């Protein structure tokens, strides 16, 4: 809590190879605080998520310059969601805002987010109006979010990485177990009063995105499997459909034989049936395997992140 009953805002900034933008990000956050929401106490928690550049050195220098900064270093790259959770552990504000360190999200939105919080919203999500992803990434995102929204319509169409949560929401998110998780879905699953703020994301000025195609595919799988049981139900429906086609095919052969006609012959029909059914079985086993993998990793009870150092 802030001093003398003044409310406190905690800003969590996950960092991954952002050495070129950290000084400017820190300066802009402080400038915006002084200009637009200085009625609140203020702190920034930077979380170095296993950066391979000199981000940690830059953060250590910033820590010497500012008394309202905390810095956390994770032992390796655990992913943005885990980095945010690590930052949550070091906050003591009444409300937490998470924002990326690449200067693509408008810091000027923070006062509007705080106004929504003061009006009673415990979750405020800033969602991009458009995405500048590649073709494959864009297709995967659209499919995944459409499926996720079928389970939870409150999830914005384009998702969100820039958001505000109340202290109560933060504490609940920290209590969740499991390593594979779709963090945006968990935030919206809380069911607390929510506001959505659309915005145009700025172009990246420094470095390049850490979201490789492999990470995007992994997020795509997590998003679908962790937000809905649709894959499991789809397997039942597909299996029932294939069984029905098999019965119809067998009935057609029987009727053909009954009227003295030549039954369906040839390897082509047999091979198509075997390959089709076999492919579906392997796909279903793969989906089941993903769920089993998540259960297995949860049972190992490994931490979602490991803090190597903090100041």
Describe this structure in words.
The chain is built from ten helices and eight strands. Strands 7-5-6-4-1-2-3-8 form an eight-stranded mixed beta sheet, with helices on both faces. The protein has a domain at 3-137 and 152-207 and 304-310: Spore Coat Polysaccharide Biosynthesis Protein SpsA, Chain A, CATH 3.90.550.10. It is elongated and about 95 Å long. Helix content is 50%, strand content 15%. The longest helix is centred in the C-terminal third of the chain and has 34 residues, at 267-300.
**H and E string:** EHEHEHEHEHEHHEHHHE
Termini separation:
20 Å
Helix content percent band: 40-55%
Q: Strand order, biggest sheet?
A: 7-5-6-4-1-2-3-8
Q: What is the percentage of strand-forming residues? A: 15-25%
- Rounded to the nearest angstrom, the radius of gyration is 25 Å
Structural category is alpha/beta
CATH architecture of the domain at 3-137 and 152-207 and 304-310: Alpha-Beta Complex
Q: Summarize the main sheet.
A: 8 strands, mixed
Oligomer: single chain
Tally of strands: 8
Count of individual helical segments: 10
Protein name: Glycosyl transferase family 2
Transmembrane segments: 237-259, 265-293
Keywords: Membrane, Transferase, Transmembrane, Transmembrane helix
InterPro entries: Glyco_trans_2-like, Glycosyltransferase_2, Nucleotide-diphossugar_trans
């Amino acid at each position: 809590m802030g001093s003398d009953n003044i409310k406190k805002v905690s800003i969590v900034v996950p960092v991954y190879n952002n050495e070129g933008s950290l000084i400017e990000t820190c300066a802009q956050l402080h400038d915006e605080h002084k200009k637009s929401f200085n009625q609140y106490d203020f702190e920034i928690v930077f979380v170095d998520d296993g950066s391979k550049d000199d981000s940690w050195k830059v953060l250590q220098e910033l820590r010497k310059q500012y008394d309202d900064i905390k810095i956390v270093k994770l032992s390796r790259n655990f992913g943005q969601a885990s980095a945010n959770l690590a930052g949550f552990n070091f906050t003591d504000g009444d409300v937490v805002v998470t924002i990326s360190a690449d200067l693509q999200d408008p810091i000027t939105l923070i006062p509007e987010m705080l106004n929504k919080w003061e009006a009673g919203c415990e979750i405020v999500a800033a969602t991009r109006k458009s995405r500048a992803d590649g073709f494959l990434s864009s297709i995967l995102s659209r499919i995944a979010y459409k499926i996720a929204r079928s389970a939870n319509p409150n999830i914005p169409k384009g998702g969100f990485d820039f958001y505000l949560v109340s202290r109560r929401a933060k504490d609940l998110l920290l209590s969740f177990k499991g390593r594979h998780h779709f963090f945006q879905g968990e935030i919206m699953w809380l069911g607390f009063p929510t506001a959505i703020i659309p915005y145009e994301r700025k172009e990246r000025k420094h470095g390049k995105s850490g979201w490789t195609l492999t990470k995007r595919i992994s997020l795509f799988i997590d998003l679908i499997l962790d937000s809905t049981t649709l894959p499991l139900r789809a397997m039942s429906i597909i299996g029932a459909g294939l069984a029905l086609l098999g019965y119809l095919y067998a009935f057609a052969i029987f009727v053909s034989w009954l009227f003295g006609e030549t039954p369906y012959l040839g390897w082509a029909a047999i091979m198509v049936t075997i390959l089709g059914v076999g492919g579906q079985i392997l796909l279903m086993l793969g989906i089941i395997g993903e769920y089993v993998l998540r259960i297995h990793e949860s049972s190992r009870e490994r931490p979602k992140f490991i803090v190597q150092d903090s100041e």
